[in-house]
């Protein structure tokens, strides 16, 4: 696949869905089976012995600042057009995308008749990562370098993205008021791309007298099953993408652990704590590659090579522009055995107080760590059970991004059926195109 427009790369940055899974609303519903598989391995549906987890899907999208889908795309008559001018005006000097996505395909739980022992197993597909980019990157690509004459501007993009299969087995043990759970997870990597932490520099200097451009790169990244080649030796700037593989048989392997506990302090008050994805590490052995560009190039033109291509000029030589990009970046590749990615570690602390038969309140403290990125949130919840099989509730939470998150849950559990919808921010869940963040989860299970 040949990338003919460098702007395509920026388009991907703006439009990829960003997921940074919190599951705070789900944490308040310990009687749902998927709160076990995603939040705490010590949770188990009350008065149930056998559980079959059917598919559950969750997303939580977040972009720093106030950039939304509607800022990037606008209607022009009966067409939808890209409006990067408007989008760029909403960006911060440094911008972040954090994302976490999870599809739980199937799971199983069993608890002994006396409730003292339990086992569990399951499978899920996860996608996680971060993107960090300066405002100068889309500005340079869209508007050129006129705003940076006489300045050296950095425009390197940093990325840490991966997806993987997750196979898990676990055990639970109840000792008096204390219930403990531990789960081991085998991770099978699908694809990954990660920039080198020490080499992510790309800079441009525009001479104020003769407008000569000097571009410098000291940039490198690892890739497995995403980019297989950057051919800069013959036909200009040619990137070859691997077909995305969803195979469960992979040389990319790793392990992670979930630990959890609940403690029934009184008949009304229960405390809980858990750590999810503890020690999660995947080593990528499926043809991992290391791409690097370390070069300095002086260009005699007055604008960045490729700007005319992006803006649709018909008066330029397309091949010449691509050859110039080739001369600048000069990517080389080599095999590597040093490619690793870490799964996001999440910590939950909480408590639930049963006010009456129909009302309960709770508190949740959440922390997620992924590389150098950390996110902490605190939430207070209320739950109403007007019927034995119907649960409604809300949550107010505060996190690094916002101090005004209103969550909601709806759980319907007639007979053995468990069906639910939850969101840590209900307004965002139904306005994905007009919000810089979104969060929702839905799932099904059978509990007997």
Quick rundown:
The chain has 448 residues and is mainly beta.
What do you see in this structure?
This protein is mostly beta strands. The protein has a single domain, classed as Porin, CATH 2.40.160. It contains 9 helices and 23 strands. The protein has a 14-stranded antiparallel beta barrel with strand order 1-4-5-7-8-12-13-17-18-19-20-21-22-23. Strands 2-3 form a two-stranded antiparallel sheet. A two-stranded antiparallel ribbon has the order 10-11. The chain is elongated, with a radius of gyration of 25 Å. The N terminus is likely disordered.
- Approximate strand percentage: over 45%
Mean pLDDT: 83
Query: What would the principal axes of the Cα set say about the shape?
Result: elongated
* Backbone CA Rg: 25 Å
The portion of residues assigned to helices is 10-25%
User: Which CATH class is shown?
Assistant: Mainly Beta
Q: Could you please say which CATH topology applies here?
A: Porin
Q: How many distinct domains?
A: 1
Give the CATH architecture. Beta Barrel
Q: Alpha-carbon distance between the termini?
A: 51 Å
Structural class: mainly beta
Number of helices: 9
Taking pLDDT < 50 over at least 5 consecutive residues as the criterion, the unreliable ranges are 1-21, 309-322
The neighbouring-strand order within the major sheet is 1-4-5-7-8-12-13-17-18-19-20-21-22-23
Strand count, sense and closure of the main sheet? 14 strands, antiparallel, barrel
């Amino acid at each position: 696949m040949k990338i003919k427009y460098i702007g395509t790369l920026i388009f991907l940055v703006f439009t990829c869905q960003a997921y940074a899974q919190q599951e705070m609303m789900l944490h308040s519903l310990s009687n749902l089976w998927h709160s076990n598989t995603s939040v705490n391995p010590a949770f188990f549906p009350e008065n149930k012995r056998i559980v079959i987890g059917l598919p559950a899907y969750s997303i939580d999208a977040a972009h720093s600042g106030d950039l939304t889908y509607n800022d990037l795309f606008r209607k022009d008559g009966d067409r939808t057009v890209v409006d990067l001018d408007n989008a760029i005006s909403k960006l911060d000097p440094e911008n972040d995308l954090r994302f976490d996505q999870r599809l739980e395909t199937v799971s199983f739980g069993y608890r002994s008749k006396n409730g003292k022992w339990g086992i569990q197993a399951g499978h899920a597909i996860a996608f996680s990562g971060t993107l960090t980019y300066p405002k100068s990157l889309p500005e340079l690509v869209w508007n050129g370098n006129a705003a940076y004459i006489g300045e050296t501007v950095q425009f390197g993009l940093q990325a840490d993205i991966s997806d993987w299969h997750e196979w898990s087995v676990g055990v639970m043990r109840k000792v008096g008021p204390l219930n403990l759970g531990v789960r081991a997870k085998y991770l099978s990597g699908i694809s990954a791309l990660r920039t080198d932490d020490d080499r992510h520099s790309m800079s441009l200097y525009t001479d104020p007298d003769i407008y000569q451009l000097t571009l410098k790169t000291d940039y490198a990244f690892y890739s497995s099953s995403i980019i297989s080649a950057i051919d800069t030796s013959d036909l200009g700037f040619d990137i070859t993408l691997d077909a995305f593989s969803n195979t469960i048989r992979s040389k990319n392997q790793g392990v992670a652990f979930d630990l959890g506990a609940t403690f029934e302090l009184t008949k009304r008050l229960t405390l809980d704590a858990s750590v999810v994805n503890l020690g999660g590490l995947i080593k990528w052995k499926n043809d991992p590659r290391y791409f690097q560009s370390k070069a300095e190039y002086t260009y005699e033109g007055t604008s960045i090579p490729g700007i005319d291509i992006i803006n649709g000029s018909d008066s330029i030589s397309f091949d010449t522009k691509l050859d110039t990009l080739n001369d600048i970046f000069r990517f080389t590749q080599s095999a590597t055995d040093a490619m690793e990615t870490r799964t996001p570690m999440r910590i939950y602390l909480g408590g639930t107080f049963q006010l009456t038969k129909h009302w309960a309140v709770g508190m949740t403290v959440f922390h997620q760590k992924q590389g150098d990125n950390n996110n902490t949130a605190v939430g207070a919840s209320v739950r109403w059970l007007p019927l034995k099989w119907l649960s409604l509730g809300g949550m107010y939470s505060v996190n690094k991004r916002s101090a005004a998150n209103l969550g909601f849950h709806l759980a319907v559990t007639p007979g053995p059926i468990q069906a639910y919808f939850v969101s840590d921010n209900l307004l965002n869940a139904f306005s994905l195109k007009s919000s810089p963040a979104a969060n929702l989860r839905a799932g099904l299970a059978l509990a007997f």
